[in-house]
Amino acid sequence: MIPRSFEYYNPSSLEEAIKLLDSNEDSKVLAGGQSLIALMKLRLASPESVIDLNNISGMSYIKESDGKLLIGALTTHDMYENSDLVKQKFFVLSEAASRVADQQIRNKGTIGGTICHADPSADVPTAILALDADIVITGPGGDRVVSAKDFFVDFFTTALNPNEIVKEIQIPFLGARTGSAYFKHARREGDFAIASVAAIITIDEEGVCTKASISLGSVGPTPLRATKVENALVGKTLNDDLIAESSQLADFNISPPSDIHGSADYRVKMTKVFTKRVIKMALNRIGS
Amino acid sequence: MRGPMATVTEEQAPPQKWVGQSVKPRESYRLIQGKGKFLDDIKLPNMLYAAILRSPYAHAKIVSIDTSKASALPGVISIITGEDVEKATKPFMGVVPPPGDKVIDYCLAVGKTRYAGEPVAAVAATERSIAEDAIDLIEVEYDPLPVVVDVEKAMNKDSTLVQDAVGSNIVWHKQFNYGDYEKAASHADTIVKEKLHFHRFGAAPMETDNVLADYQESTGLLTINCNNQMPMFCLALIVLATGWDSHKIRIITNDIGGGFGAKIISYTYMVLISLLSKKSGRPVKWIMERRANIISGTHANEATFYVDIALKKNGTILGINAKTIHDEGAYLRYEPIGALLWVQVSSGPYRFKNLRMDVNSVVTNKGPVAPIRGYGRMQHLWMIERIIEIAAKQLKIDPLEIRMKNFITSEEMPYVTPSGATYDSGDYPQALEKALEMIGYPEWKKKQSEYRKHGKLIGIGIGTGIDSGTNNFAQVKLISKENPFSGQSRMAFARMDEFGRFQVAVASNPHGQSHETVVSQVVADELGVKPDDVFVLPGMDSFSHPFTGHSGSYASQFAVSGIEAVLGASRKLKKKIIEIAAFKLGATPEDIILKDGKAIVQDSDKSLEFWMIANMAWRNNLELPPDMEPGLMELYCWKGPFKLPDEKERLNPTLTYSYQTHVAVVEIDPETGKLQILKYVAVDDCGTQLNPQVVEGQVHGAAMNGIAASIFEECKYDDSGQLLSSTFMDYLFPTAVEIPHFQTCHLTSPSPFTTLGTKGAGEGGGTPLITISSAIEDALAPFGIKITDSHTTPERIYNLIKKSKKVKGN
Amino acid sequence: MNFDGTFDVKAPREKVWGLISIPDNMVKCIPDLKEFEILGEDKFKASIKAGVGFIRGTLNFTFTLSDKTPQSHAKLSGHGTGTGSTVDLETIIDLSELPDGGTRMIWKAEAKIGGLIASVGQRLIEGVAQKTVTKLFDALKEELEN
Amino acid sequence: MEKKKIKLTINGEQMEGEAEPRTLLVYFLRDVLGLTGTHIGCDTGHCGCCTIIMNGVSVKSCMVFAFQAEGTTITTIEGLAQNGKLHPIQESFWENHGLQCGYCTPGQIMSASFLLKRNPNPTEDEIRRGIEGNYCRCTGYVNIVKSIKAAAEKMQSK
Fold first, then answer.
1. What CATH number does residue D28 fall under?
2. Per-residue confidence at B16, pLDDT binned at 50, 70, 90?
3. Closest Cα of chain C to B274: distance in Å?
4. ∠ CA B286-B288-B291, rounded to 5°
5. D3-9 — which CB contacts under 8 Å span 24+ positions?
6. pLDDT tier, C39 (very low <50, low <70, confident <90, very high otherwise)
7. CA contacts within 13 A on the Cβ side of D112
8. Minimum distance, in Å, between the CA of residue B634 and any CA atom of chain C
9. Secondary structure in 3-state letters for A108-152
10. Is the Cβ pair D139, B700 closer than 8 Å?
11. Last residue of a domain, one of D30, D56, D79
12. Topology annotation, domain C2-145
């Protein structure tokens, strides 16, 4: 299967790329292409022009800067999955990346690509949301920063304007005594999630939960924060009963889709089950 | 464990040198280097590429097709629609008696479409991309018709008709009575009734159905390169539908990327692409895209069973009475043979004598089915094993005990089933004992009850499947006496060339079964040479490979029919080589043996090298015995030792009966319904193994196919007939992460009916589906749950648990 | 797929009827409309670039208005093809007056989707359909209240 | 859309050919450059039959445009054997019957070569994860896993 015809551009700078986006109706940015190209082959997406960012140098990096982890938009899943910094300090992100499709896709697919694609069932956006990441966007008017919770607007729809490009993902460092985990319930390892949960739990010396970030995938048009669950945990000493009970609140505000792999009802139930399990996973990882 | 089998194995260990050894497949050498020759690798001068437009509707009248925009696209050479096809061809023949014979089946939809994904028009263009663009530009006006996807609704009098001319969606119905079920039931202590459903899934070989047709007007020669796995059988269907000159059709297959039966029904595309080549006067290549491969019906038979089993209190099975409804999809193609093939394994591995089968073959607005691995038998065997386990639970009898009590034993072999199938050899109880020993049955049983106390669900599943092979086509006479085929045959030639080296050909269209290698092993033993001295023609070319109307790879039979043909040809060749040598060396043929490339007179120093014999035969024929025909090339056609059905409609429908016994341990997460296979054991017995490594590979593949079907793969349709699992995104082909390691063991009960004791193998009888269903039911025993569908998803298991009343152990 | 809903507008029935019963006015409210062509007083063609985000395919629809009872009832049927898919749409609309002089529109729609979109778009279709409906009614409101 | 010339290094050799923007790398390799060892098994980037090594990492060549390959260094299955000697992974697949129909095999072998480069001594689980993006219908994966394990041993003993 071959895509419909399109114009191909491979600018060597972001400025040039933005100009091209500005001057071309119906143009689409190509990062890793692991979702876009499949859709173009099925002819479910047929942009008139494709603007390939891979010729722009310096968009793939993982670095630390004043209390933040900075990841370049073109950094592949494989790179940050296996980055020691990410594994040590942001395990949930590495874990989410490790569940993306398969090795070849992780070798080509990028963090910028997956968040801009904004598939509510994808792994990385769910983790990004739990991590309170900021998305650095660049456009004709220069850079702007949008928080992950405002970035994901709708099914496959983000806060990006047609003439903007995601440049960097910034993730604030997590406090001491923090544990994090991501888990996806799917029929096959690499499939889109039936239900997926990312949890980041921080406790104080007394073991009282001081911060809880929990986000849910495949539960609606975008990944969602389980604020009710978070609130039920913060300020409490976490034990199995409390976690189980709080996880029941995970169905607040969610409206999962139905497909042959899981009905909406099943997805709701699984979201609760895995909220419970992932919180425990995160908790058990504190200190380790 | 009982001794006899083991000793049998010793005694029957084949005496030959190369047969029985795991010779590295010669085919692999080209394939591991990417130097195989698959259809899409072929490029011909001036070649065009085809693309096919498919119906978005499951059932609709075709009001009009406007191809003007598409034709206007630069690079588009020719387009054909149903109208052209109707003019150029007749509907393909089927095997059903009236009124089912009125099923209309063309290579493109004519007048109306009957399933979503049915070909509606085809384009040939100078590039693949242009052909695909042209498809987008064809405008079809459809008038949607009511859709029927539920096979039981399709049987209602007032149902919409898929095949109008037939006047009913039930295209074939027949009741078979073997023994006397009524009488058996009257003696029964219990009759257990159940409705069971065997789901629809695909074969999905990694290489899809591809065709490259090249018609030369100047000679009238039509060359069809394809990857059909039994094209010489399909040739009859093609010629009858098109009226083309059979003697001017050349069919070629090269390396084939898997088939699993699905590639048998690609003959409709062979006609379609040939029509495009004839119309454009150029070679046309068509590569089926994966989505088309999944939607356009290379599916296994979907079947619904209403089954009664009559038993004694002690678990002795007296008989089975089943109404079966086969959902054939929109077209019959090879059907309803699949609805009949249970006759090969009518009582499974069990001894009961009374069987009533009320068989219904029904069309719906779904993709057509094909003879997929385990064809027809796996559905029936799954039904028998399911109902027996369900009955055992009702009778509070252990599933092992009820099997052991009813198994046919090795002492009873050869055993004739109620429908006349003659099981040649085997030892089902021993296979089960072996499998249980390998898995560590008692240990797992102990673990199971401990785990249950903590709400952990472990299940141990058992299944025995019969892998009947080398079919007798006379079985189709049970559908209609008029059907013009019966028996089984294979043809091969063996040739000693001018330099004393050997060439062998047999038209088997292999696609992963290492036929070239296995044949070279067999011939090497016969002629006293090394396999490397025997070149086996790769692939198949109908202008160079000897073939019959039965040729091809299907119905698990190469180790029988293919090998018998090769043996016959080699032995004829051997006889002539010896005659020449005896004449030249002044010895009697009886004293001559062939060894290490020489004809040697035993107990003497007289010998003649093969090249000298060859030279006499091919170049120096005045030194041959005066009355001997020159040359050293022998043709042999093997005929299966079969009969037509008797007056009671009994016949032996296949020559050999391999079998497999699998045992699986699974764990189910009660909170999510997710299933994990903890351990999997497969014991198989296909008689003498020609190449153990190749046989083991087949066992692995069959195990995976069945596991994939039972927990991952399903062709799921919505009410409007749309297939919802049409790409690998939703059609869940399992990966190495999902599939467990298989522990295998081979038993050897040589077939008394074949020269080397071989049996056909490779389909596996759907044993994993039986085993996994059994394991799930065992895991869910605390909830008293019955497994009545061959496919389970986490959500379905979850719902079963939630719905169940009993909640012991959890 | 079935959808239905009730929506109230601050506009008299004549005005509402005038909008929904006349193709020329109606088409303005169709989301993602690329082009349209009036084929008659109750029939029009509309080419719609339907989808979400960049996942979009052009569907060429033919819409027909029927069962018209002025100011109270109408049926809008649409048949669209494109992107290897088909969409068959049937919408029934009933109007009634509200005490405040506004109008209440009660609608029922049935959509049948076939082909590529139906078989690979599962996870999305419902969401997309919902969104399209919302957009459509927002546009109607916009047209009617300003 | 007009065609453009693409230059790249394949299996150590400078090669060039023409492609449209929409030409997928796998078609460029197969149809334009005649490297037919890389196969196509699906439309959606799942099956991995088209796996190649591009700039040092395994990628699915049906999910990359030919234009993106400009100036890259690529290894395909045809490039593994060195001066007539099979690569140890190829040998192991042959010896352990790690293939049947052979259609997915080039992709399996290319994925294995990436896995073993990164992890010379993988566990069975790591091997299974490593070829997760490569479907096989014939072997049930058992002999593929066995082949890769054997290859790892061969390559380490060298």
1. 3.10.20.30
2. low
3. 25
4. 155
5. D4/D67, D6/D66, D6/D67, D6/D69, D6/D70, D7/D70, D7/D71, D8/D69, D8/D70, D8/D71, D8/D72, D8/D73, D8/D74, D9/D72, D9/D73, D9/D74
6. very high
7. 32
8. 54
9. HCEHHHHHHHCCCCCHHHHHHHHCCCEEEEEECCEEEEEEHHHHE
10. yes
11. D79
12. Alpha-D-Glucose-1,6-Bisphosphate; Chain A, domain 4 (3.30.530)
| Token pair of B796 as six digits | 């379905």
Q: Which residues contact B437 (CB under 8 A, 6 or more apart)?
A: B1
| Option in D1, D21, D51 nearest A104 (CB) | D51
Whether B302-474+644-808 and B489-639 share one fold: the answer is yes
**Positions of chain D with pLDDT lower than 50, given as ranges:** none
Count the neighbouring beta carbons within 10 Å of the beta carbon of residue B302. 24
In the numeric block, which tokens belong to residue D53? Answer: 């090594």
CB contact under 8 A, B729 and D95: no
| Domain residue spans of chain C | 2-145
CA B736 distance to own-chain centroid = 23
**R_g (Cα) of chain C, nearest Å:** 15
Using the Cβ of C57 and the Cβ atoms of chain A, whether some distance falls under 8 Å is answered with yes
Q: Do A269 and B738 touch (CB under 8 A)?
A: no
Distance separating alpha carbons of residues D134 and D126, to the nearest angstrom: 14
Q: Which chains are within 8 Å of A by 3+ CB pairs?
A: B, C, D
Q: Is residue D96 domain-shared with residue D152, that is, in the same domain?
A: yes
Of the pLDDT bands very low, low, confident and very high (cuts 50, 70, 90), residue C122 is confident
Give the start-to-end residue ranges of the domains of chain B. 39-145+203-296, 302-474+644-808, 489-639
B4 pLDDT exceeds 50?
no
Closest CB to B795: pick one of A188, A192, A263.
A263
Residue of A nearest to D127 (CA): A103
- Compute how many other C-beta atoms are within 10 angstroms of the C-beta atom of residue C15: 15
CA distances from residue D89 to B646, B736, D105, D117, D154 in whole angstroms, order as listed:
56, 18, 11, 11, 8
Segment holding B613, helix H or strand E: helix B610-618
Question: Thinking of the domain B39-145+203-296, which architecture would CATH place it in?
Answer: Alpha-Beta Complex (3.90)
Q: Write out the two tokens for B717.
A: 């349709």
- State yes or no: pLDDT of B2 exceeds 50: no
Taking the Cβ of residue A41 and every Cβ of chain B, the question of whether any pair is shorter than 8 Å is answered with no
Q: Does B132 touch chain A (CB under 8 A)?
A: yes
Give the ranges where chain A is alpha helix by DSSP (H): 14-23, 36-41, 77-81, 84-89, 91-98, 103-108, 111-117, 123-130, 148-151, 227-233, 240-247, 264-285
DSSP at B294:
H
Q: Which candidate from A28, A258, A260 shows the least CB-CB separation from C54? A: A28
Domain tally, chain D? 2
Candidates 3.55.30.10, 3.30.365.10, 3.30.70.60, 2.60.40.2470; correct CATH number of B489-639? 3.30.365.10
Distance CA B321, CA B314 (A): 20
Phi and psi at B767, nearest 5°, equal -55, -40
With contact defined as beta carbons under 8 Å apart, do B770 and B464 qualify?
Answer: yes
What is the radius of gyration, based on Cα positions, of chain A? 19
C52 touches chain A (CB under 8 A): yes
C122 to chain A: nearest residue by CA? A259
| Cβ–Cβ gap B116/C85 under 8 Å | no
Give the residues across from A203 on adjacent strands: A209
In one letter, which amino acid is A224?
Answer: L
Shortest distance between the Cα of A175 and any Cα of chain C, in A, equals: 36
Q: What is the pTM of this model?
A: 0.97
**Architecture field, domain B302-474+644-808:** 2-Layer Sandwich (3.30)
* Domain containing residue D33: 4-79
Average pLDDT of span B789-803: 97
Q: How confident is the model at residue B702 (pLDDT cuts 50, 70, 90)?
A: very high
